Amino acid sequence: MTSLPLRRPRRLRRTPALRSAFAETRLEPSRLIAPLFVKEGIPAPAPVASMPGVYQHTLESLVKEARELAGRGVSGVLLFGVPAHKDSSGSQAGDPEGISQRGLAALKAELGDEALVIADLCLCEYTNHGHCGVLDGDYVDNDATLDRYKRIAVAQAHAGADIVAPSGMMDGQVGALRTALDEAGYADTVILAYTAKYASSLYGPFRDAAEGAPQFGDRRSYQQDPANFEEALREAALDVAEGADALMVKPASHYLDVLRAIKDRFGLPTAAYNVSGEYSMLMAAAQRGWIDERAATLETLTAIRRAGADLIVTYHAKKAAEWLA
Ligand code: PBG
Ligand code: ZN
Fold first, then answer.
1. Is 250 a catalytic residue?
2. Which runs of E-coded beta strand occur in the chain?
3. 206 in ligand 1 pocket by Cβ < 6 Å?
């Protein structure tokens, strides 16, 4: 007997029909969430130079964009507000008349229950120093920041947010928000916790879009060290204990090990944030003709799903949804 292979894995790869039928991971528009930026006081949508295809929206263009996304089957939008005026405590973040609350209300009025309205909850877009909390000297004061976050969460829920997503990486933030929301009558408002958020070099383009770059220092005293894995699991355990409804890992592509582990270990709905730097690197290469935008995007998103993401927050959402239709 010659030794012909008995097992031939290529059998299942021969045709598109075979490959599709046996694919383990599927990507659908409903797995995607689109981040959107709304800026106060601009007359027309402003393109973000470092993020081709991404805009700082007016209230009007925000709603229009959300409508198109919902029409393509994207599950929701994650809103970031960019106020005209910043101060040391980021007071606009929780102002019922502030740009973010007006944006949330406009989105809710447009989308109803057709797609999710998710509010990013942080202070960096609203503080004049660009840090994610209130300062005590040069240090971000954890517990004073929690007091600010609680008020913001209630304002966001009141404005119509289905989900609040605290991204500031303060200790105890999930528990503080759960209590504040429950006490204010928003027991059904979902908390999507930015659980493992790393102090990443890949947030640069976002900081152009959200105008929230730290004016001194960096975020390493509150965001996680990229060197750490176990720490992410400890963070996740705390968020689960504090009442998080869903967990998020951020960035996505460089942290697929963390994503897989958190999904397996905690079994909660798990999201991954395919961040601005991941987007801009891919788009820059695509614009030079160095990679194929569509293929690279779909491969990236599929890989994030394969690693355990139920939901992917991505600036590619609109195009990807179109390609997947
Ligand atoms: C702010 C925030 C950041 C991002 C989401 N919320 C930036 C940061 O922490 O500096 C990054 C998103 C992206 O890069 O797409 N809390
Ligand atoms: Zn922040």
1. yes
2. 32-39, 46-47, 55-57, 76-82, 116-121, 135-136, 139-140, 163-166, 190-197, 246-250, 270-274, 311-314
3. yes
